[in-house]
């Protein structure tokens, strides 16, 4: 079967790659950029740094620094107006997945009609929009190299998955030095998100030979470096490996899809404001255990690519090693249980059906090796409660 692979046109990769931003704009023939970022980036001085890089080369530089964490559709409106009024010809997304996803959605809404809910899956976004140059500052979502944006519908509280080649950033500037300021909590949540992308892309029903290579490389980079990158402030090698691993994991899942962990994790973000990577991590060991019987070899291979076993002579041992490591990482990186996060048990249980329906609507559970029914997902949410 043939697969259409979509990637950014330009990828500037490595320590110091940020300095190549003007060249990147030049290569894309862009003259006036609006930076899309958030308050943290502003406070860290990164917005000013990017503005200073752009100013000599751009006719006009704008700044929107009100990106909302895990953005909803209403948070985009002011930016859409700003970009339209300033007639900017490209967006420079600076930040984590929230800034990059916002920029992708803003570019789409500036260039075309409608609301974000008109574009959610199963619609495929093929429309061309003004170019987005994505500069990730977390080693996590891989959004800089995915044809995906995730925007919450403020009316229904659904975390909408929007997908299609029209959402792929024109360029990605992947510079691990921008992650050095990450607090350990954010580094852990975003790093666990990247690990989840790599595993889910590898076991996805839509996995293919191309996505497998990216997923394997991502697991090899992420698994041995995640803990050090989060807990050892000066371990630059680990941080560099995490950044590369996160982008490769993004390429892997963008071309193979995520699966049940992401499907069930998004409603936890919407209803209880659990950060995206943390809610993935809370579910990853449980859903991996649930799914292993339907793809035993693939999951054993994950254990091998993560360096947990040397061979596949004994699949059960490999599965045990994988589950043990996922639980150990959660413990070492202080991923809380749902109750320790502060979720109220009664409210959680009142939302089980709704969350299962929202998970199903996203389409992601259908990519899982073991495709669950609504009652299966309700039971999984019940088991996840500790
Ligand atoms: P985020 O962008 O929300 O950032 C988390 C926090 O970390 C923010 O306060 C941010 O300001 C701060 N931060 C970011 N970089 C920093 C740095 N270098 N130093 C200090 N602080 C920094 O988190 P995220 O996990 O990167 O993105 C989450 C969003 O991405 C969610 O909405 C999720 O649904 C989405 N997502 C998108 C894709 C995709 O392919 N489009 C994939 C996975 C997740």
- Helix and strand composition category: alpha/beta
The chain-level mean pLDDT equals 97
Gap from first CA to last CA: 42 Å
Number of distinct helices: 17
Quick one: biggest sheet?
Answer: 6 strands, parallel
Number of extended strands: 8
Task: Please give the share of residues in helix.
Answer: 40-55%
What would you call the shape?
A: globular
SSE string, helix = H, strand = E?
A: EHEHHEHEHEEEEHHHHHHHHHHHH
- Uncertain stretches: none
Q: How large is the radius of gyration?
A: 20 Å
Tell me what you see in this structure.
By secondary structure, the chain is α/β, with parallel strands linked by helices. The protein has 17 helices and eight strands. The strands form two sheets. Strands 1-8-5-4-2-3 form a six-stranded parallel sheet, sandwiched between helices. The protein starts with 9 loop residues before the first strand and ends with a helix. The model has no long low-confidence stretch (mean pLDDT 97). Bound molecules: nicotinamide-adenine-dinucleotide (NAD). Nicotinamide-adenine-dinucleotide binds at residues 38, 40, 69-70, 95-99, 101, 137-138, 140-143, 146, 148-150, 178-179, 181-182, 186, 190, 193, 250, 276-277.
How would you sum up this structure in a few lines?
50% of the residues lie in helices and 11% in strands. It has helices at residues 21-27, 39-43, 46-54, 77-86, 97-111, 184-203, 209-222, 226-231, 236-254, 260-272, 276-291, 296-305, 315-332, 338-341, 345-350, 352-361, 374-384; strands spanning 10-13, 32-36, 60-64, 90-95, 132-136, 148-153, 158-163, 171-174. Nicotinamide-adenine-dinucleotide is lined by residues 38, 40, 69-70, 95-99, 101, 137-138, 140-143, 146, 148-150, 178-179, 181-182, 186, 190, 193, 250, 276-277.
């Amino acid at each position: 079967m043939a697969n259409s692979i979509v990637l950014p046109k330009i990828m500037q990769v490595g320590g110091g790659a940020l300095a190549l931003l003007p060249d990147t704009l030049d290569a894309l023939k862009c003259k006036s950029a609006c930076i899309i970022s958030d308050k943290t980036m502003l406070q860290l001085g990164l917005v000013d740094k990017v503005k200073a890089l752009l100013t000599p080369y751009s006719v006009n530089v704008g700044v929107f620094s009100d990106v909302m964490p895990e953005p909803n559709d209403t948070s985009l409106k002011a930016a859409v107006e700003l970009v339209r009024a300033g007639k900017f010809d490209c967006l420079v997304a600076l930040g984590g997945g929230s800034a990059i996803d916002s920029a992708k959605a803003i570019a789409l809404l500036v260039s075309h009609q409608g609301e974000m809910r008109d574009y959610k899956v199963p619609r495929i976004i093929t429309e061309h929009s003004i170019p987005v140059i994505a500069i990730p500052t977390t080693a996590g979502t891989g959004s800089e190299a995915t044809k995906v944006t995730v925007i919450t519908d403020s009316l229904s509280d659904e975390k909408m998955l929007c997908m299609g080649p029209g959402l792929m950033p024109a360029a990605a500037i992947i510079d691990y030095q921008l992650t050095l300021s990450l607090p350990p909590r954010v580094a852990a949540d975003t790093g666990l998100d990247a690990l989840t992308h790599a595993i889910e892309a590898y076991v996805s029903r839509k996995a293919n030979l191309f996505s497998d290579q990216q997923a394997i490389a991502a697991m090899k980079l992420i698994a041995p470096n995640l803990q050090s990158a989060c807990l050892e402030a000066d371990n630059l090698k680990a941080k560099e490996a995490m950044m590369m691993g996160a982008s490769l994991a993004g390429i892997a899942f963008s071309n193979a899809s995520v699966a049940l962990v992401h499907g069930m994790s998004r409603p936890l973000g919407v209803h209880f404001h659990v950060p995206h990577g943390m809610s993935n991590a809370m579910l990853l060991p449980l859903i991996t255990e649930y799914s292993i019987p339907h793809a035993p070899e693939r999951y054993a291979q994950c254990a091998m690519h993560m360096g947990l076993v040397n061979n596949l002579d004994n699949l059960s041992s490999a599965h045990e090693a994988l589950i043990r490591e996922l639980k150990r990482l959660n413990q070492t990186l202080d991923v809380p249980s749902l109750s320790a996060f502060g979720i109220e048990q009664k409210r959680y249980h009142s939302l089980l059906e709704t969350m299962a329906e929202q998970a199903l609507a996203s389409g992601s559970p259908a990519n899982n090796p073991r495709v669950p029914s609504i009652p299966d997902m309700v039971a999984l949410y019940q088991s996840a409660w500790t």
